[in-house]
Amino acid sequence: MLVPPNNILRSPLASSLRFIMSMTKSVARGPVSATIEAKLTAAFSPTHLEVRNESQMHNVPTGSETHFKVVVVSEKFRDARTPISRHRLVNDALKEEVAADGPVHALSIVAMTPEKWRERLDKGEVVGPSPNCKGGDGSLPKKNEVTI
Amino acid sequence: MNRMSPLLLLVGLLNSTSCTLAFSPATSSSRTLQRCGSTTTTTGGVGGGGSTLRMSDADEASSPTRERIQSLVEANPVLLFMKGTKLFPQCGFSNTACQILQSYGIDFHTVDVLADDEIRQGIKTFSQWPTIPQLYVCGEFIGGSDIMIEMYQSGELGEMIEKAKADMV
């Protein structure tokens, strides 16, 4: 009687959601992630928000919160027509975090309106991880560095 | 997918050949912007926050670092502030930025912020932008690597580079 809604399960939206969930599950959330999420939620009332801690891709101690990618989908970007103006809005919302003396060393941003996000999902596009580390600039503690 | 694949192809291709094989080191530091000046005014809207780049910005007009950055931006039609060099990028985002610019076959100039702490901090204030890399085309701040990817895919960056190329001759 009840037919499994295969068409829904196989839709780009469902596969994107599965991908997103698999990403968020794998990384423990720390205080910096929580602050970023709270600030972006307050600033943009996003219809979709991802705060990905990508620090484990870099040579920093386990559990670090230094490298992030955020995906922010919000109506608030409707008037910000250029990529740079959208990115500036996100950078402004997180200015304490990304400041030179703040906790975040790298921030990758994907910011768009719900329509653009929908178009992207319909095309089956996903937001992939950031590029691989190339060694870093030596300003952060290393994964296996012992501090005395 | 179809819009993403050319970039993936590009990144894969360039990863295997490294950043530098096809391009000689930039030697454009002595060049001055000529027609680029007018280009900047016509495309000024793209910057969205370009007001921070005005020469008349009094805030730190007297800072020597600011003046150094200003003259670099004016002297190089396509200028990338990055971590590391074209040969040895020290950061994945800077590497992506390099690869995108190299795909256009242009002789762009890079500044290694890791080699100069004043520039490293100064460029963040100058552009009002917290992260590296940072791209300038014809004196205009374009953005970081996420924006470069977005504008590469939309073709917008290619158009800007074409204009800058004309100014390099």
From TrEMBL, chain A:
Q: Which SUPFAM superfamilies does this one have? A: BolA-like (SSF82657)
Where is the stretch described as Disordered?
124-148
- An annotated GO cellular component: iron-sulfur cluster assembly complex
Q: Which family does it belong to?
A: Belongs to the BolA/IbaG family.
Name this polypeptide is given: BolA-like protein
Organism, as annotated: Cyclostephanos tholiformis
UniProtKB/TrEMBL annotation, chain B:
Q: Which Gene3D superfamilies does the entry mention?
A: Glutaredoxin
Q: Where is this region: Disordered?
A: 31-65
Q: Which UniProt keywords apply?
A: 2Fe-2S, Iron, Iron-sulfur, Metal-binding, Redox-active center, Signal
| Pfam family name, one | Glutaredoxin
Q: Could you state a single Gene Ontology molecular function term?
A: 2 iron, 2 sulfur cluster binding
Cited PROSITE patterns: GLUTAREDOXIN_2
**What protein does this entry describe?**
Glutaredoxin domain-containing protein
Q: Which organism is it from?
A: Cyclostephanos tholiformis
